[in-house]
Specification:
CATH architecture of the largest domain: 3-Layer(aba) Sandwich
Strand content: 25-35%
CATH superfamily of the largest domain: Collagenase (Catalytic Domain)
Distance between the termini: 51 Å
CATH topology of the largest domain: Collagenase (Catalytic Domain)
CATH class of the largest domain: Alpha Beta
Structural class: alpha+beta
Helix content: 10-25%
Number of domains: 2
């Protein structure tokens, strides 16, 4: 990919002035009509709980007079292309077009990146509902290897601030990744790609990481020292479930916060947030998870030991989502960290299973090994399952 930040007029004298001004970006003419992966996340109230991801899309760029058209490529034969943005061309050389993404990126599509067949059924609705962005400013434009990273400040229709993160790169599916097809949601729950038509049938792939390389979670610097071991234990619980040391924990470099295109960040957040949460962004055609963003609420109850044991359960729950697992609200004996547990139950799981236990809970172990490692799943011995949106299935039901 030949994206280049255009450092026009960036002399030392002018740097303070231009530092907060959106910079046009050069797109090589050789990249026109090639496929790109576009991923977007946004915070409608920066610093609060309203973090979301927008549906990942495969796009191409086409020249039309003084503009560049960003068009979504269809996933299946017979589907129509969709114009997503019209981006002004500000300059041109024999090899490049200088384009203004800030002017063209003027709305956010509402569809979330992760989905499931119970959300919309097994037909892709192609929902293009969106909200507008006003008073836009491109705060930063940078290259992270082959990835163009843009951060935009804007305001929505209610005049509330919106902070938008764009990741754009040439689309190259991972040749080592093995997609895992999910046929139904009856027995276990994984987030899925949006429905695709292949050989005359509908296919949905589980959203999961590539197991041919370490799955690394980075602990953001603001996690207090008294809680860091508990957070690490919560992440590494999933190695007990996998039976392999695939999941790793590192300290995030200084200044790294969620979201970040190079790290799966576990972010410590304050009491203004509604709840701990996690989000994932994937290759929309294969289901490979490319980024995970986890936000852990700092508010807690009980003494320090109870706080840490409950935190172990909360982190294991959110990392489970980051690995692709959905909720399991089935009643009965506790068989998964993917349920919502009360204070006493969660402390007990954090202590007896995550801190001191030698094995993961039954549902977690069987399902994660089935999807990630291809182990057969015995439906007759699998614990009960029900998830969001299913009839009579709700937390604390």
């Amino acid at each position: 990919m030949a994206f280049k930040g255009i450092l026009f007029l960036l002399s030392l004298a002018l740097a303070p002035f231009w530092a907060s001004v959106q910079e046009p970006v050069a797109l090589s003419k050789a990249d026109l009509d090639e496929r790109f992966l576009l991923q977007i996340s946004y915070e409608q109230k920066p610093g609060s709980q309203d973090f979301m991801t927008s549906r990942s899309r495969i796009v191409t760029f086409r020249r039309k007079n003084g503009t560049l058209l960003m068009i979504e490529e269809p996933h299946t034969a017979g589907s129509s292309r969709r114009l997503l943005a019209t981006i002004p061309v500000r300059g041109e050389t024999s090899t490049d077009l200088t384009v203004d993404f800030n002017a063209g990126f003027n709305k956010i599509f509402d569809e979330e990146d992760r989905t499931g067949e119970d959300y919309y059924g097994r037909v892709d609705q192609r929902d293009y509902s969106s909200f507008r962005l006003f008073r836009r400013t491109m705060l930063s434009v940078s290259l992270r290897g082959p990835l163009l990273v843009l951060t935009q400040q804007a305001f929505n229709e209610r005049d509330e601030p919106v902070l938008v993160h764009y990741y754009l790169s040439r689309y190259h599916p991972n040749p080592d990744f093995e997609p895992f097809e999910i046929e139904n949601l009856d027995h276990f729950g994984f987030y899925q790609t949006y429905p695709q038509r292949e050989l005359g049938r509908t296919v949905l792939y589980a959203m999961k990481f590539d197991i041919h390389k370490p799955i690394i979670f980075a602990l953001q610097a603001e996690i207090p020292a008294r809680y860091r071991d508990a957070v690490r234990d919560g992440v590494l619980y999933w190695n007990k479930a996998l039976g392999l040391p695939l999941v790793h924990v590192i300290d995030a470099p200084d200044g790294v916060t969620a979201p970040d295109p190079e790290y799966n960040v576990i972010q410590w957040v304050g009491d203004g947030h509604y709840a701990s949460t996690s989000h994932i962004q994937d290759d929309p055609l294969t289901g490979e998870i490319l980024h995970a963003h986890i936000f852990v609420l700092s508010r807690s109850a009980g003494d320090l030991r109870e706080q840490n044991d409950r935190l172990r359960y909360i982190v294991a729950h959110e990392v489970g989502h980051a690995l692709g697992l959905r909720h399991n609200f089935a009643r009965g004996p506790v068989s998964t960290v993917m349920n919502y547990l009360g204070f006493e139950q969660s402390v007990r799981i954090g202590r007896d299973v995550i801190r001191f236990g030698d094995d993961a809970l039954d549902y977690d172990r069987k399902v994660i090994r089935h999807v990630y490692l291809g182990e057969p799943l015995d439906i007759d011995t699998l614990p009960a399952f029900c998830t969001d949106g299913q009839r009579d299935c709700a937390p604390f039901h």
